[in-house]
Each structure stands twice: as C-alpha cells, then as structure tokens.
Amino acid sequence: MEPAHDALLRTAVAVALDRRAAYDELDAAAGDGDFGSTLARGAAALAADPPDDLRAAAQVVVAAMGGSSGPLLAAALIRVGDVAGKEEPGTTERRNPSSEPAALVRAAIDGIGEYGEAERGDKTVLDALYPLAEALEAGEDPVAAAREGADATAEQTARRGRASYAGERSQGAPDPGAVAVAEIAEALRDGEPPSWGDLAGRAPDDDAADEDQLVELALAGLERAHADRLERLPGRGVIVRRDRGTTEGRVALVSGGGAGHEPLHAGFVGAGMLDAACPGAVFTSPAPDQMVAAAEAVDAGGGVLFVVKNYTGDVLNFRLAAELLEGRVQTRTALIADDVASAGETGARGTGATIAVEKVAGARAAAGGTLEEVHAVAERVRARSYGIAFHDEEMEVGVGIHGEPGERRPRAARQEVVEHLHTSVLDALEPDQDVPLLAIVSGLGGTPQLELLAALELLGAELGDRLRRTLVGDLITSMDQPGIALTLVELDDELLELWDAPVWTPALRW
After folding, report:
1. Which residue has the higher pLDDT, 80 or 161?
2. Mean pLDDT calculated for residue range 325-329
3. Residues 314, 428, 316: CA angle, nearest 5 degrees
C-alpha cells in the first residue's frame, strides 16, 4: 500500500480504537449507541491483518463491521482506491492522476452518498466530508473546516439511519461519524500514527469481546438444543436447517438482523419457515458474507427469498449480498416496514410483521411455490405494529426495538395501554370491518407472560370476532426491556391457510 494511504488507514484505526466509547455515547443520543463499537470491530480487523490496498481494506471492514457503517465505509474506500490509482513502475506518475487530497475526499463523498442515498444536511459523515473537501480545494484549513462541519450537526435533524426515527429529538448531539472524520483529520495533522504492530497489540475492549462471544455462545447453544434439526455453518455466524437442500427446486428463505431480538431470527429457522438466519452483533446488522454463505448453503435450485427488516444496515448489507450472489444464486427481497411510529423519510421500521411474512412465505415455499410466487405472498402481507416500553412510573410510546426513543408519558393503567396499542395500529392499518385479523402480542424481553396474556384478553374484548388468530409471547425482543408490542395482520383465505400450515422451529411449532 502507498505510504499516504497506509498512514491514513493507521490513523483511522487508531482513532476508532481510542474513541470507541465516546462514539457509542454520541450515537446513543438518537441512535442505538453502537457506532463506536461497530467502527472498532472494523479497525481491529484491519490491525490484525493489514491490507495491501484500499479495496482489500474495504473487504475487511464490510465483513467485520456489519451495520450501516460497514458497507458505507467500504464504498468510500473502494472509490478512493479507484480514483487514486497506482504509480507506474519506475516513475512517480500515476495511471490515474486525480489523486490530490480533495479529489480523494470527493471520491469518498460520492461512494457514501450513492450507496447510502444521503445528502449534505442529513446529519451524517458527509457533513464533515463536504467542508473538508471544499477547504482543501480553496487552500484553507481542512481540519478546522471538518471540525466546524461536525460541530454543526448537533443542531441538525437526522434524516438517514436509525437516528432519523427520532426526528427533532436527534438534535442536541453531533453525528458520531462526522465527529470521527474531524478527529481523524486532526490526528493526521498532529503527527505520525502508530505502526500496524502497535495497533495490533492494543488490548481489545472487554465489553465488546464479551458481546461477540455471547452471540457465538448463543448460536452454539441453539445448535446444541436442536442438534437434530439445526446446525451452524463453521466460522460464518449462520444457523441453517440440517435438511437444507433435500427438496430439489424448493425456494429457500434467509433472514437476519442484529442479535438481541431473540427468538428473532434464529429461533424461526425450521420446517415451514426460515432455512437460514444470520445474526449480527447485538443490535447491529450482519455482514454480507454471512448472507452470501447462508444463501449458497440453502439454495436448492429454486432461488432464495431474503426477508429484510427496514433498517439502513440490514437493507445495505442484504443489498450487497444480493449483488455478490448475482449469477450464482437467484434472489428476491421482501422488505418489512410496519412500525406505525417511524414512518419517516427512510420508511417505517420493520418489526412484528417479520414473523407473519416469514411464516406465510415459508409455508408457500414448503408447498412448492416458485420464487416469484413466494415473493408475491410475502409482499401481500398487510400489517402494522406499535410498541410501548415501561420505565418505572413512565411509559415510552412508539419505542423502537433497538432502543430508538419514543414519547415519554406517565404510565397508564393496563386497559389504557392496550387501548392505545390497538387504536394506534388499527388507525394506521385501516382494515375493512369484515376483514379477519391476526394479532401478535410480543413482550420486549422484560415483561411477564402474565401481563402479555392479560393484554391479549383485553385486546380480544375490543376486537371481538374479527380476531381469528393470535400469537403471544416474547417473539421480537429488545434484550430485557419491559414493554409490549402489538402487530395486527390482515388475513384472507390464502393467508389464513398459510398461517395454519405446519411449522417446526425452536420458537414456533404446530
């Protein structure tokens, strides 16, 4: 790798490792508090095996990081590497002469903007990169410009990523990605970065290591508990059915997302539902190599349906996986966007409807449907969801499953909570009066079954004969958060038949 690029990477790695906790704290103000941890995973992977060039660095970070940051950083590294080119042997001339610092920053901007569909002013890393590029082009102080741009994001409203769901509540703290750009620029100005050897020797954060080990142990435990039906793909962080590929031509279903929502998704792998699940780190989307490995393992010739919740990281990583599989495995994607509280510019979050889609699409695949037919069934599911978290004497209405903030109110009585849940969902779903409904009542991980069953009974009293099917329990959780999420799904004769079709998974069986 050329000295300038090597120094840039070493500087970025050093900043990411040193500032992990600070970036997590900034991200917690409006996101899910994992930006620093995610960035540090990519940095640690680079330090463990220093890449030969920027494209190699892109492959390392996208595999190690997951989340939305991984593919966006990879896109930036690839574009910078393409613009920089390489020196001709024996000369100082480049095959591509557009290698001035400003051109490289512009290349990073193009990659992030195109892949993340972000613009200046969206409260992202771009709000520090744009002024950095402009200062370089004008011969002004680039470090001061980057810092000013990062600081200005504190007053902006996030319009991309999970922070966008907080709306105006995302104001007050700067964007951690923009702050990271400013701090990397400052570190480059201030001196020579540590060597790769020094970076590799830094002790990993104990919390991050424990978290990664927790996910690995949990997957091993799931395999042990259901060894007759499930297994892990070695070294991939993927759970698959043992009988995968035994029915030639059958469509396979693959889903995934951050850990911390169990039993979603790995608990729904089995006959009549998913063929594979790809868990990421806690509240962090999996990386594309997991989806690619899963799809190749379960494809039986009929193609693979990706079931993807509408979070930036999940969408980006599954999209990249589909591109990598092109020409090898035929794929389609069903995007789940059902959360009433988060219908912003990036669309509603994907929550409880995921279970309904995985169940009916899995049943259609088991019945021999083609990939187009299975995809069409998944797309037909009409559902809306809403969650309420409990905090002692307060409740948080419209809360997200990654801790995305809702509106804090005094805690209401049980009857009022259920009325607020079902009214919010029905008003958004607007089903016809005679349309039968499926109700999914899920705890968020810290609510007793007693409360969930009581909520279901109160809901049944409100909906009467319209309520044809029910599912209750801890189904899509947020670690150990006390709270309840309600999903209502419209049913017709076909969807009712597919819902009732046999299923065997660790979390769902009939």
Report:
1. 80
2. 96
3. 10
Res 97: pLDDT: 45
* Phi and psi, residue 15, nearest 5°: -65, -45
Candidates 5, 265, 375, 402; catalytic one: 402
CA distance 264 to 440: 14
* Predicted structure pTM score: 0.86
**pLDDT of residue 163 exceeding 70:** no
Torsion of CA 11, 112, 290, 265, to 10 degrees: 120
Q: In the chain, count of helices (H) and strands (E)? A: 18, 12
Catalytic entry in 5, 261, 265, 422: 261
Phi, psi (rounded to 5 degrees) for 13: -65, -45
CB 111 within 8 A of CB 79: yes
Helix (H, G, I), strand (E, B) or coil at 87: strand
pLDDT in tens, 423-460: 999 999 999 888 999 999 999 999 999 999 999 999 99
- C-alpha distances out from residue 28 to 33, 154, 174, 336, 479, Å: 4, 13, 11, 24, 16
pLDDT, one tens digit per residue, over 480-495 is 999 999 999 999 999 9
Give the residue from 411, 465, 475 showing the smallest Cα distance to 261: 475
Contact assessment for residue 69 and residue 177, using Cβ atoms and an 8 Å cutoff: yes
Q: How many C-beta neighbours within 10 Å does residue 64 have?
A: 19
What length is written for the chain?
510
Q: How far is CA 152 from the centre of its chain?
A: 26
Q: DSSP 3-state assignment of 371?
A: helix
**Rounded distance between C-alpha atoms, residue 153 and residue 177, angstroms:** 10
CA 443 – CA 414 distance, rounded (Å):
14
Q: What is the pLDDT of residues 201-229, one digit of tens each?
A: 875 555 556 777 899 999 999 999 999 99
Please say whether the beta carbons of 272 and 502 come within 8 A. yes
Which of 379, 385, 380, 418 is CA-nearest to residue 400? 385
Amino acid at 242: R
d(CA 174, CA 407): 21
5 catalytic residue (yes or no): no
Active site residue 375: no
Token duo for residue 2: 């050329």
| Separation CA 128–CA 177 (nearest Å) | 8
